[in-house]
Amino acid sequence: MNIVRFAPSPTGYLHIGGARTCLFNWLFARATGGKFILRIEDTDLSRSKKEYLDEILSSLQWMGLDWDGLYYQSQRFDIYRDYAQNLFKKGNVYKEGEALIYKVPKDINVKIHDLIHGEISIDTEQIKDQVLLKSDGSPAYNFCCVVDDALMGITHIIRGDDHISNTPKQILLYEALGLKVPKFVHIPMILGEDKSRLSKRHGATSLSEYKNEGYLPEALVNYLALLGWNPGDSREIFSLNNLTKEFSLKRVSKTAAVFDIKKLKWLNGQYIKNYDTEKLLDLAVACLAEKKYIMPDIDRKWLKSIVELYRSRFQTVNEFSELASFFFIDDIRYDTDAVSKFLNDIDVAEKLEKLKEALEKTEPFDIAGIERNVRSLIEKLDIQTGSLIHPARVALTGGAVSPGIFEVIACLGKEKTLNRLNRVIKKLKTRADLFDKLSGL
Q: Which pLDDT value is given to residue 205?
C-alpha cells in the first residue's frame, strides 16, 4: 500500500506551494487506494503557534482534504532521543556539548532515484556532519523527518524540489539507522509571472487570504492541481472526485509551474456560474455583512435575484460585493467619467424627471412592467433609447456599466429607485457640485 504524508510546520500560514504539495500527496493516496498522513512538524516550540496550526487544519478542510492519521512531532521527542542514542552507541555519532551529531562518511556517492527528475548523484564531500539532537534536546529537521517517515511506513515522499538538498542527508541517515529508503518525488517549484519564486510581491500567498477574497475551494483546488500536473489533453475543469480518478505522478511536469492570478480568477468565475445557489448566497451574505453593507438576516430571496443578475459578471465573491454595492448602500460612489459623459446634457434632469414619473405609476413594479413603461416613455419623448437609459444607469448605480437597466431597477425596488432619482434630479437642477469627494451626488 502506498502511504504518503504532508508535514507542515505551524510557524506560519499554509501557503500556495504547501497547499499544492499537500494536494498532490492526497491525490496520489486516493488515486492508488493508499493512505494520507498529516504530520505537524512543530519541533520549534518557540515559533510554533496555535493560530497557525488552526489555520493550516481549517484550510485543508476548506479544500476538501481529509487524512488517515494525524501526528505531532512535539509529542515524539522521546522516540527521536532513543534513535539518536542508539546511533551514538554504534560509534558514528559524536557529542558537541549537549548536541548529538552524526559524522557523515566521506568519499561516498549518494544516489537519489527521483520519480520526476531521474537519478541525482551527490558526493558526501559536499555534505556537512548532521545534527541529530540540538543542545536543548530538540531534534533536527532531517533526523526526525527520517525517523517519522520510517515509523509511519511512508512509501513515497512527495515534496517541493527545494528539498532536494535535504534528500542525500536523509538517505545517509536512513542507511545509518538500517531503515528502508522510501521513493522520492520532488515537484518543481511554483514561480511568479516574472519567473522568480512565488512570494508576497506576487499577491496573496496563504490559503486563508484566497478564501477571504472570495475564491471557491473547488476552483482553487482545480487550479492547484493544474500547477505542475496535466491530464494529457486540453481539459481545464476538474472536480476533486475527477482528480482522484485521473491523477498520476507520470503526468507531473519536470519544469516549474507559473502562478497566473488571472487564470485562477477566470477559473473561479467558471465555477461561480454553475455554483450551488444557496452556497453562493451564504458566501455573499458573509462577505456583504463583513463590509457592513447588510445585516446577516437579509431577505435571501431579494439577494438571490441580485446574485443571479450578476452571476456571469463576477469572478470572486468580493468582486460581487463591489459591483453590486449600490444595491445595499445609499451613499453610492459616482464615477467621475460616467457623470461627465452622461449627466451633463442640459435636458438630462428633465428626462430623469419624466422617468421618475413613469416609474411612480408602474404597477406591478416588476421587470416587464418597468420595461413596458420606460419604452413607452422613450417613444413618447421621441428620443434615442441611450439618451435616457445611460443617464438613468449612472444616476441609479453610480457607473456606466451594469446588467440590464430594467432588471437593475426591479431589484433596487420602487422606493430606492425613486429616492435615488429624486436626489440626482435635485442636484442636476441646481447644478450644484455633482459629487462630494466622489461619494454621492
A: 78
Dihedral sign for Cα 26, 30, 31, 33, please. Answer: positive
Residue 183 region, left (φ>0) first, then alpha (ψ -120 to 50), else beta? beta
pLDDT digits (tens, 9 = 90+) for 130-172: 999 999 999 999 999 999 999 999 999 999 999 999 999 999 9
The verdict on whether 265 is a catalytic residue reads no
Burial of 316 (0-12, 13-18, 19+ CB in 10 A): buried
Q: Which residue out of 111, 180, 200, 254 is catalytically annotated?
A: 200
User: In the Cβ-directed half-sphere of 81, how many Cα atoms lie within 13 Å?
Assistant: 11
Contact 184, 167 (CB under 8 A): yes
Q: What is the pTM of this model?
A: 0.92
Residue (of 144, 264, 141) closest to 193 by Cα position: 264
DSSP letter, residue 104: P
Evaluate the CA torsion angle 86, 89, 91, 93 in order and state its sign. Answer: positive
14, 198, 258, 375, 403 from 194: Cα distances, Å: 22, 9, 9, 51, 36
CA 138 vs CA 38, 73, 160, 401: distances in Å: 20, 10, 25, 61
Distance between CA atoms of 313 and 325, rounded to whole angstroms?
A: 14
Residue 204: pLDDT band (50, 70, 90) is low
If you ran DSSP here, which 8-state letter would residue 93 be given?
A: E
